[in-house]
Amino acid sequence: MALITGCGQGLEKVSKSSEMSSAPAKATPNTTPNSAKDSLSSGKPVSDRSANPKGSVFILEYHHLGISKDTMFRSPDQFKGDLERLYKMGFRPETVNDYLKGSTELAKGASPAVFTFDDSNPDQVKLNPDGSLASDCFLGIWQDFTKTHPDFPIRATFFVLPDTMWGQRKMLSAKLDLLRKLGCELANHTMTHPVLRKLTDEKAEYEIGEAEMRLEKLGVAAPASLALPFGVSPHNKGILSGFDYQGKHIAPKAVFLVGANPAPPVSSPKFNGLRVPRIQACEGPFGITYWLDQVDSNKVKLFVAG
């Protein structure tokens, strides 16, 4: 078992589900794109790697953009570095729903990088007065990256708090429209980000159920996936399998943890839809750099589309 230490603030233990190998290091595969016009699902391969439908999947978790010792922050330069390294290693972005469908839209030779953003922080999606993406937010930086890497388009899942989505309340509709056009999606992170284990069943059901219904009003197809605040399940874990709320049955499509390791593909017998691990975008044990280094050392075998 692995407990998130140093790099993250989750409170629950998660088992390492990545497929590990003790094989000696091998030469890094050629992951140079064949053309700047390549798209995620183009017929041109992203790398010369053989298909591996049993490999591990990187589900990345971002919170704040900024310079801080707090592991919830990723600096602009670090985020740019993440994009560049992921690209060179043959990763291509997809959403949570893409992952749950089996990553079937990726080009041959690509590995999925499932981008998730938690907490609806303003530095994730920020607009200029003219409605364009600001350069000092995650998506603004990513948009700039796509200018030279068009086959790494913005695709992400935002686990949101419905009442506090990214500030700039008067621009919320414009932000939602932009995210839809980019191919991004919204998912459930509860109403107020509580420690669910400390709540009564009734209050835990409100936090999950009310957020689900708010998302439906925004056009999100039910059921939405759920990211557990702090990675902590309700005291009654049966709630995650489904419950009735205001005349509607609520059952998350999948439930995501805070960390701390790559996830199995959905076709794997190791896949547990109520406990899907993620990788925090931070330095230190079990953060994004740690796991990418494990891939470079051939200690983790990635899912590769065929």
Short description, anyone?
By secondary structure, this protein is α/β, with parallel strands linked by helices. Helix content is 21%, strand content 13%.
Feature tags:
306 residues; six-stranded parallel beta sheet; 6 helices; globular; disordered N terminus; two-stranded parallel sheet; alpha/beta
Order of helices and strands: EEEHEHEHEHEHEEEEEH
Total strands: the figure is 12
Helical amount? 10-25%
For the record, give the distance between the C-alpha atoms at the N and C termini, rounded to a whole number.
32 Å
Average per-residue pLDDT, rounded, comes to: 88
Counting helices, strands and paired strands, the structural category is alpha/beta
Strand content: 5-15%
Low-confidence stretches: 1-8, 10-39
Query: Biggest β-sheet: count, sense, barrel?
Result: 6 strands, parallel
Could you explain how this protein is built, in words?
The protein has 306 residues and is an alpha/beta fold. The chain has a domain at 58-185 and 262-296. The protein is built from six helices and twelve strands. It has helices at 76-88, 96-100, 138-146, 172-182, 201-217, 288-296; strands at residues 58-62, 64-65, 73-74, 91-94, 111-118, 157-160, 185-188, 226-227, 243-245, 248-250, 255-256, 279-280. Helix 1 packs across helix 3. The radius of gyration is 19 Å and the shape is globular. 44% of the residues are buried.
